[in-house]
Amino acid sequence: MDEQFLDLLAQIYDTEEKVVTEIINLEAISNLPKGTEHFVSDLHGEFQAFQHVLRNGSGTVKEKIKTLFREVWTDQEINDFTALIYYPEEKIQLVKENLCNKQALNRWYRQTIEHMLKLISYASSKYTRSKLRKALPEQFIYIVEELLYKTDSTNNKDPYYEEIYRQVISLGQADNLIIGLAYTTQRLVVDHLHVVGDIYDRGPDPDKIMDTLINYHSVDIQWGNHDVLWIGAYSGSLVCLANIIRICARYDNLDIIENVYGINLRPLLNLAEKYYDDNPAFRPNLQSNLNRSEEEILQITKIHQAIAMIQFKLEIPIIKRRPYFNMSERLLLEHIDFDKTEIKIGEKMYPLVNSCFATVHPQFPEQLLEEEQQVMEKLLFSVQHSEKLARHMNFFMKKGSLYLKYNGNLLFHGCIPLENNGNMKEMQIEDKTYSGRKLLDILEYYLRYAFAHPEVTDDLATDIVWYIWTGECSSLFGKREMTTFERYFIKDKDTYKERKNPYYHLRENEEICRKILQEFEMNPDYGHIINGHTPVKEIRGENPVKANGKLVVIDGGFSKAYQSTTGIAGYTLLYNSFGMQLVAHQKFNSKEDVLCSGTDLLSIKRLVDKELERKLVRETNVGESLLEKISNLKNLLEYHYMK
Ligand SMILES: O=P(O)(O)OC[C@H]1O[C@](O)(COP(=O)(O)O)[C@@H](O)[C@@H]1O
Ligand SMILES: [Mn+2]
């Protein structure tokens, strides 16, 4: 053992007692049951639904309440108490409106605080006191600990405890305490959160999701293709930037760009007004709660066309300078016959509808007009100087990765590119080829490089970020093509098909999943693969649990736009010391619904895997580092204190 390292350690643990206490403490912690992991994916800006799932811990909160109070409470009482834990501020307000006088309210406060303490004591039973303390509302730690750890069997202290309750209420602190305890409960039921990609696009509030995650006690993110698009835009990729604006226009979410991130769209609007008109293919998918005037809709429609055409132009030079991206089929603007308004795709000619090619030079379709160039430069400047976006993208880099090995499971958003025969598919980058884990590592390396060099806009790293969004060998996309152009301009729906990498059907096969786990040096007997990205069409009988339980796909469609295809409103996964459970969520309407009806449209649970023996902290990633620390401390004890 390195003596210098031990000397440093000795500065922190400078007495024998300190070393011994820490060893005992860590040994004890590593023998506790493992904490609950919570997996979500494909949130797509649906903040309300997401925060509901966070608040209810995918059903864990209600389950614990039922276990404790089922025998003594009616369903209505259980629902009321559950709603209080989810949305304490609003529920307290409702209770106040319904109770007739102060005495009744005080009685409710007294009972409710006691019930909450009982729930917290139960929910924290597998944690150390110190961990619980960190989760308690700061200003009430002392009081709550007194009430939680009552040990007086002689009842001598009863009046003392009663006085604490009375004082909290009479000093007007009951609301704050109840609210604080509700959040403590929410925090205790989930130890760690995994977001398996696609926080951004389609829905209205990705920024609120990011803020929630930034403040969350323990989280990691596996980037989705839509997240990478935003990272790309921030890192200087103009084509990624065009894409995020196009998608925001398409889903009537330009507010995110303009108001949330403060990016000025005026120059783009001026350009759009000059060259574009109404066009049915580019009318936005309206958010039902926004009352848009015809004039606003027309403006969005024009912006949508302007930015889509810039996007299609910008793709061309990248495809040409990176032949190994293997995307020459996507040079679509070059295959247009502008006189006949037709396009050749493969061997077939298709008429173009809804065309809006006023800014395209038929011989040089990749050329941006001077005005387009300027608009993009201004947009990029604005994007790279948005403080809020910088905060969100930095958080992505800090907590995110393309894939993650965690407690024996392998998490990634989309796929591991495979050949039809199940071998890892190779991708060439410059003069080398990569596949499997090495491919994901090199893609991530380039993404991080691009992020670190935002001033460079056309190097390989920046181009690769766009490739991760849309390339066939991207583990976040994994389809042969993205047929955005066809869906705008061609009637024949056959052209909309996006051919999926064989992974997406081979993953039904257990052997393939085992092979992938081995590729990542994981134990295929215990590990699982967790994916998002492809909406599971439960409505058509698709099973999210595949390959004999080795793989789970948890994209059930938080995204409202996809709920009619999936038939549900998203899956989440829970992994606690007893095993792994999949939770299917019903459509989330609003928190008002939960508060009024009290019922929670939850969640059918399915067991994915059951641990034969309860899993302990020592068998987890955290446990591994605890054991390493214990070993270091034991060395220190020997080297410093036992000489
Ligand atoms: O339905 P939209 O928003 O037009 O997007 C369709 C596009 O989104 C994609 O499905 C990618 O997004 P997802 O990662 O959410 O699946 C593409 O395959 C497809 O071309
Ligand atoms: Mn995706």
Would you mind describing this structure in some detail?
With 643 residues, the protein is α/β, with parallel strands linked by helices. Among the domains are: 3-32 and 631-641, no CATH class; 55-189, no CATH class; 225-489, no CATH class. It has a seven-stranded mixed beta sheet with strand order 7-3-2-1-15-16-17. A hairpin with a 2-residue loop joins strand 8 and strand 9 (409-412). Helix 13 packs across helix 19 (387-399) and helix 14 (238-250) runs antiparallel to helix 17. The longest helix is centred in the middle third of the chain and has 28 residues, at 294-321. It is globular, with a radius of gyration of 28 Å. The two termini are 15 Å apart. 43% of the residues are buried. The mean pLDDT is 93. The structure holds 1,6-di-O-phosphono-beta-D-fructofuranose and manganese (II) ion. 1,6-di-O-phosphono-beta-D-fructofuranose binds next to helix 13.
What's the SSE blueprint?
Elements: H1 3-12, H2 16-30, E1 37-40, H3 47-56, H4 60-69, H5 75-86, H6 88-98, H7 102-123, H8 129-135, H9 141-148, H10 158-170, H11 174-189, E2 192-195, H12 206-214, E3 219-222, H13 225-234, H14 238-250, H15 254-260, H16 266-275, H17 294-321, E4 336-337, E5 342-345, E6 348-351, H18 370-384, H19 387-399, E7 400-401, E8 403-406, E9 409-412, E10 427-429, E11 432-434, H20 436-452, H21 460-470, H22 484-489, H23 503-506, H24 510-519, E12 529-531, E13 545-546, E14 551-553, H25 563-566, E15 571-576, E16 579-584, H26 591-597, E17 604-610, H27 621-641
Parallel strand pairs: 1-2, 2-3, 3-7, 9-12, 12-14
Antiparallel strand pairs: 1-15, 4-5, 5-6, 8-9, 10-11, 13-14, 15-16, 16-17
Helix pairs in contact: 1-27, 2-27, 4-5, 5-6, 7-11, 13-14, 13-19, 13-21, 14-17, 16-17, 20-21
